[in-house]
Amino acid sequence: MKRLTLVALLILTPFFAVACGGDGGEATATTAAPQVGDPDPPLPMDINTMPYKPNDLVALGNASIQIDTPITAEDGTFSFKVSITSGALEPISITPEMFRVYTLDGKSYISDTAPGTEQFGARTLQSKEVYTGTFSVKIPTDSEPAMFLADLRPIGDRHFPGAWVFDPNFTSEPSEG
Fold first, then answer.
1. Of the candidates 44, 78, 83, 130, which lies 20 to 30 Å from 152 by C-alpha distance?
2. Residue 70 pLDDT > 90, yes or no?
């Protein structure tokens, strides 16, 4: 149930709009709502139920992460800075597959490799080391970027997944129950 609530909070609430109109039974043109898809790959079961926002510094177990406000370049590249600080006593290794941008249609993308730009995420961090890089992706569809996922579970049991929503106006609504 929590997973369904999270998907609704993260994907449907901030971006899904319903257009309505018409008077006296006349049909009017409406704007089609964006196509919403299931996250691929699925979101981790133990992800935070209240998404973070850009500039929030978040502890995900023995690592903390902060992302900047994303920008979209003229060529359509969507990018933002990510800083990771290791709090582990031993070195930890991160991979590009641990970091994804999900779009409203449910697709996800790892950071692109581009000439002159290092792919984000291929790194081993020593204790207390800070790694800052640019997560950059060119999304091949018209679907809007909805969230950033950092899934640190592969590092070990003292690391957790976390999600950041890109909508600056997002406000979470308390769940019932």
1. 78
2. yes
Which residue, among 50, 88, 58, 82, has the nearest Cα to 69 in the 3D structure? 82
Whether the CB-CB separation of 117 and 77 falls below 8 Å is answered with: no
Compute the CA torsion angle 124, 125, 126, 130 (nearest 10 deg). 160
- Mean local confidence (pLDDT), 94-116: 91
Which residue from 76, 67, 75 is spatially nearest to 148, judged by alpha carbons? Answer: 67
b or e along 72-90 (b: 16 or more beta carbons within 10 Å of the residue's beta carbon)? eeeeebbbbbbebbbbbee
Cβ distance 89 to 127 under 8 Å? yes
Amino acid at 109: Y
Nearest C-alpha neighbor of 101 from the set 133, 68, 136: 136
DSSP 110: P
Instruction: At 83, list the tokens.
Output: 């800083």
| Pairwise CA distance, residues 166 & 9, whole Å | 12
Please work out, in degrees rounded to the nearest 5, the angle formed at the alpha carbon of residue 47 by the alpha carbons of 127 and 62: 10
What architecture does CATH give domain 46-163? Sandwich (2.60)
- Which residues lie closer than 8 Å to 8 by C-beta, 6 or more apart? none
- The answer to whether the peptide bond before residue 41 is cis (omega within 30 degrees of 0) is yes
